[in-house]
Every structure is written in structure tokens, then in C-alpha cells.
Specification:
286 residues, 34% strand, globular, binds adenosine monophosphate
Length: 286
């Protein structure tokens, strides 16, 4: 049975559980604080800190794991991204005090002190650009460092930017963009578990794909079918089904992007559609 490391708390924990549940792999734990659980009776989950997941996976304590790409790169272990899970979107950003005359990398003073809980990535970022800085490693709350006088600059994760604003800091550059990823050891495809991991990736991807789509059903006048086809391309074109009303109307079913569904429904109505239904899709495997 594959062992999957999931974040035990923090920003990624709830989204990870929800994604696995939507893929049919519900967390079934013995209690709130259980450290392991069954994932739908198919896999075993272990709950650990998101920061520790790269090490656990690299060392073989888990076969795969869900954690932020920022933490994977910071760990510097040989890991591979099996799929982007599209949640936990954030960026590792460089920020300075609002009143500091720094608007880009070139303005950063030589030997500036940089507080960060991402010392490896930060070190590499500045070294690659030949900017000499002194790294001040912190384990969290880097944004307080400029106010305490222990650093001039911070490199920290930013999602909405409100934490930086509240702390009087201004973003001046991006080190990297990150999302949550499913990761495995770099060479795991050859160790007999590759097939199971492929199935897991397929299941998670089918949920992510489905989240961006809706299933739309409508009865439309038969003589408008060409115009309907233009509005509802579907995956392979809409399904068209005869109705028992003498052939005047037909039912059309199609998968359509969720982002444009408002306009799609309006366009169908303009073509004389009736009985329009829009539903969510649980999983989509084209
Ligand atoms: P925000 O105020 O929304 O910009 O969030 C910034 C704070 O949340 C910082 O303390 C970050 O360390 C943390 N944070 C934001 N996004 C993430 C993420 N995807 N994963 C982990 N921590 C995050």
C-alpha cells in the first residue's frame, strides 16, 4: 500500500484533504489527532508538517507527498513533481520597508541583511544575480525583522499581500511562484510503485480538470442546432438527443468551461433554449 504524506495543518492541509476526497480517497482517521489514516482504503496517509514532507519523501518514509513547491526547492532534495495541484498559490517575494528607496534588485545596497525562512533559495537567487547580501535565517514571521533592526529586507511567501501591507513592507521582486504539488522521489517510476502513482496522478488530475468545467443540458429548437454548436463546442461536440415532441426540439448535452458559463446560458436562451440545466462535474477524463 502506498504511503502518502499530507500536511497536518496550515494553508495546504484542508485543500489537500478535499482534493483527495473528491478523487474518491477520503481521509478515514481514528480521531482528530491521528497521525496516520486510511485514504479511501486504497492508500495510507501520514500527517506531517508541510516543511518536513520533502525530506520524508526523499528518504522513502513516504512514497509521495503533497507540499508547496517553494518547500520542495528549498529542501534541495532529489524530488520530482508528479502534478501541479493548483492550490496554495503564492510567491516567494523580496520586500522592503515602505519608506526605503528600493524599487528593484539593482537598488539593493551591498551587504544588505535579508531575513528569510528560505535561506537556500534566497542565497542562490542573490548569488545568481551577483548581489552580495547577508542571510539572516528565521523560522517564521520574517516580516517583523526590519522593524526589529535585524534585517533590511525580507524574503517571504506572499499570497494576498495583506501581511506585508499590515507590516509596512513593500514588494519589490519575485524569487519564485509556487503552488502545492504532488511529489515523489526523482526515480520512483522504476521501483514498482510507478503504476500506482500514475493512477493516483490520473485521479487527482481528473478532479482538477472537472473543477473548471460544467455539464450543461438544454432543449433547443432543432433548426438552431448549427448556432448551438458554435456556443457549445463540448469535448467532442455536444451530444444531441431526440425528444418526443414531434422533432421540433432536441436535447443537447455538453461540457463547457465554468468561467464562461454565464454567457453560454445567455446565448442558449437567445437561441430559444428551454429547460437549461447546469451541473458540476466530479471527475473528467477526456
Ligand atoms: P498574505 O497576507 O495572504 O500575503 O499571506 C502571507 C502569509 O501567509 C505569510 O506569512 C506566508 O508565510 C503565508 N503564506 C501565504 N501563502 C502561503 C502558502 N501557499 N503556503 C504557506 N504559507 C503561505
Amino acid at each position: 500500500m502506498l504511503r502518502i504524506a499530507l500536511p497536518n495543518k496550515g494553508r495546504l492541509a484542508d485543500d489537500a484533504r478535499e482534493l483527495f476526497a473528491d478523487a474518491g480517497l477520503e481521509v478515514r482517521a481514528q480521531g482528530e489527532r491521528a497521525l496516520t489514516a486510511s485514504l479511501g482504503g486504497v492508500f495510507e496517509a501520514i500527517f506531517v508538517r508541510a516543511q518536513d514532507i520533502p525530506e520524508f519523501v526523499a528518504d522513502g518514509a513516504a512514497d509521495a507527498g503533497v507540499t508547496g513547491w517553494d518547500l520542495v526547492l528549498e529542501s534541495d532534495r532529489e524530488l520530482t513533481c508528479l502534478t501541479d495541484l493548483q492550490f496554495g498559490r503564492c510567491r516567494l517575494a523580496i520586500a522592503v520597508k515602505e519608506d526605503l528607496e528600493v524599487n528593484g534588485l539593482t537598488d539593493i545596497p551591498a551587504e544588505a541583511r535579508v531575513a528569510t525562512s528560505f535561506p537556500r533559495l534566497t542565497q542562490r537567487f542573490f548569488a545568481d544575480r551577483s548581489v552580495r547580501v547577508e542571510i539572516v535565517p528565521v523560522s517564521g514571521a520574517a516580516e517583523i525583522a526590519p522593524h526589529l533592526g535585524i534585517a533590511d529586507i525580507v524574503v517571504d511567501l506572499v499570497s494576498t499581500g495583506s501581511t506585508l501591507r499590515v507590516n509596512g513592507l513593500r514588494e519589490v521582486a519575485t524569487v519564485l511562484e509556487s503552488t502545492a504539488r504532488l511529489i515523489a522521489r526523482a526515480n520512483s517510476s522504476g521501483d514498482g510503485r510507478g503504476r500506482e502513482l500514475d493512477d493516483l496522478v490520473g485521479a487527482l488530475q481528473s478532479v482538477l480538470r472537472a473543477r473548471g468545467q460544467r455539464y450543461i443540458m438544454a432543449n433547443v429548437p432543432r433548426d438552431q442546432l448549427d448556432a448551438v454548436r458554435a456556443v457549445l463546442p463540448g469535448i467532442t461536440g455536444p451530444t444531441v438527443i431526440d425528444l418526443l415532441n414531434g422533432g421540433k426540439h432536441v436535447a443537447v448535452h455538453a461540457v463547457s468551461p465554468a468561467a464562461g458559463i454565464y454567457r453560454t446560458v445567455a446565448a442558449l436562451k437567445n437561441l430559444g433554449a428551454e429547460g437549461i440545466l447546469v451541473t458540476r462535474i466530479e471527475r473528467l477524463m477526456p
